[in-house]
């Protein structure tokens, strides 16, 4: 999140704007330095086949300044190597001409290489331990089938030569994690794992040196191999979620139009300093906090406060980062930018809320807390028991203790959670949901109370006119004509609705838009106006409305309601049917909130909530023992999202809200949310089944090991059988 | 049992070749875009002569 505003991260774009090179400020001059080659990254959401690859690469290569372009179909991206001065917008337009949707990505936000390295690192260890496991297994088959004396010793020595370096190299992730948890005075799952691997290897070396019958080299390596696969699945789930979340963040390449000597120069937001004058065009998002110097307009604050009514802005008004300018161009004097801006202060609040949130203990951690002491105690007890029974035969006692440790080693337990989470998050990803956190599924399964935000979450933030039928056809024709002349969202919605009703716009003259107020024109010699209540002489109401004035007649008001997000009704109905308590919280007026609550059948609603009140509500519900799912998109929801047991935000949400939530909804449809809870409940059941399966294997195998009948063959069989059963059970997730 | 003198090194060497190939493919980023590579082979563009 913070990366989006980091000045260092912005430097890449400097070369994309040649005007910056002529910048007078020394700081900016240093930043711009020499023109660099443009390395651009575009996202290609619709690419899917060989033809797409060829089309896109050929079209981009036709651009005279593009050196090379390569499509990555797995990530649905194209990376372009070009000479300095190539703008991403050109390339996007080129691709749009041949029918491909493309979006610019900020290459600095995508830290793919670093994450990639860690994935390759685990893969390398899996490869090495897999190679070692297969070779040792071949040698072990010979021993199991009855190799004797010198031959057995030779095979054991060769196994040792392969196994020891492998264990040292491939086991490192476990040793490091076990050491970390021991230093923190905890017994994680990695402690018994590391102990079993080390003990199995050393006892086998000792046995081999003394021409013993049993060596557990195969078990030690197989353990490493299976557990590394679990680690890799775990890592993959998180990496996929992170790279998609990064892609969402990278889609917002923030630039501001800086006014310098009367000319507009596009600069990265990170380079703005207080005192700069910036121009904000209608439709643009405010890039920094500031005060309006020139121009009037209306501001949409829905994402920040949840208000659906636009707010008037003129010289002297203070604007915050993230608001959207609706009608007229504004000149803004920057008072705070980047880290100091209100958007960033809000993000810091969220970070604080997340730290304060008490840490959730996952199923795996609870299992480890119960299982690790059990394993250690059993192994130690069998060591003492055999020492007693055999009358001080340390070698025998250590051998049996090692066998107990190996048999009880949580091989299947290491796969139990990652395999289910991989399978479930893949399923939810296809439904359009992105799991950002490994334990989010478990927490989602426990939810009993659901809190919805209104503006932008249950509604699209797109208004629809409500009472057009009450207007006389002639008035409607005038309203349509006025509305068509403006780009204001209410006017656009009105024009769209009247066009849909087949209204022919009346002929008007002298049409002009008064930014911040409305549109004015002349109809048959009379002045007509469409706009804000106070401008046309009407009294402002509680709900979103625009007002029409014809000559000296009393103004007519046209009311608007927000359009519901597709699937909102299904999602709310799904939660109510599942017996969950559903609440609606919004910063909007009580009129708008109660109307929506009634429409969706939600009985608990809270209007006019400030961000702090929203998170206080979440805290109060949690204090009463409720497990709260928060669904929200605005900056005013972020503290509540961070404080809730589990949280979901749509992809259209602000960066800060997406960062604070555990699950991101990729499509516009809200319906998968209710289904996600069902999948989560199912996933938790599979995880518990997996635990049960691996426990059953232990219940059968442990007595055999304690009694001293366990052989390396039995250990190998128990380990691989339980791992395979657990993986198959995870794939059953529907 | 003399055969073991040749067979064990041979089997280890064969396995080692596999491991080396795997390490090479990881180092040379062969797993960056598995879906794209699967599709690229269907592309007829450079069928007649290699890409210059």
Notes on the protein architecture:
The complex is a heterodimer of chains A (734) and B (52). With 734 residues, chain A is an alpha+beta fold. Among the domains of chain A are: 432-460 and 565-678, Rossmann fold; 463-563, Calcium-transporting ATPase, cytoplasmic domain N. Chain A contains 26 helices and 26 strands. Chain A has a 7-stranded mixed sheet, sandwiched between helices. In chain A, a hairpin with a 5-residue loop joins strand 20 and strand 21 (556-564). Chain B contains 2 helices and no strands. Classes of the chains: A alpha+beta (734), B mainly alpha (52). Chain A binds chain B through residues 49-50, 53-54, 71-75, 120, 123-124, 127-128, 131, 134-135, 138-139, 151, 154, 158, 162, and chain B through 1, 4, 8, 11-12, 15-16, 18-19, 22-23, 26, 31-36, 39-40, 42-43, 45.
Summed up:
The complex is a heterodimer of chains A (734) and B (52). With 734 residues, chain A is α+β, with helices and mostly antiparallel strands.
Quick tags:
heterodimer; A: alpha+beta; Rossmann fold; 7-stranded mixed β-sheet; 6-stranded antiparallel β-sheet; 26 helices; B: 52 residues; 0% strand
The separation of the N and C termini of chain B measures: 55 Å
How are the strands ordered across the major sheet of chain A?
Answer: 14-26-25-24-15-22-23
Helix count of chain B? 2
CATH class placement of the domain at 432-460 and 565-678 in chain A:
Alpha Beta
State the end-to-end CA separation of chain A. Answer: 34 Å
Question: Could you outline the blueprint of secondary structure elements for this entry?
Answer:
The complex is a heterodimer of chains A (734) and B (52).
Chain A (H helix, E strand, L loop, with lengths): L6 H4 L15 H7 L5 E6 L6 H13 L3 E7 L4 E6 L5 H10 L5 E3 L6 H33 L4 H22 L1 H12 L6 H20 L7 H34 L4 E6 L2 E6 L8 E4 L8 E6 L2 E4 L1 H4 L5 E3 L4 E2 L4 E2 L4 E7 L5 H15 L6 H27 L4 H15 L2 H20 L2 E3 L4 H6 L3 E5 H5 E7 L7 H12 L4 H13 L7 E6 L3 E6 L2 E6 L1 H4 L8 E6 L5 E9 L3 H10 L3 E5 L4 H11 L3 E3 L4 H13 L4 E4 L6 H6 L2 E5 L4 H6 L2 E3 L6 H35 L5 H20 L3
Parallel strand pairs in A: 15-22, 15-24, 22-23, 24-25, 25-26
Antiparallel strand pairs in A: 1-3, 1-4, 2-3, 5-6, 5-7, 7-13, 8-11, 8-13, 9-10, 9-12, 14-26, 16-21, 17-18, 18-19, 19-20, 20-21
Helix pairs in contact in A: 5-6, 5-9, 6-8, 6-9, 7-8, 8-9, 8-13, 9-14, 9-26, 12-13, 12-25, 13-25, 14-25, 14-26, 17-18, 20-25, 25-26
Chain B lengths: L2 H25 L6 H7 L12
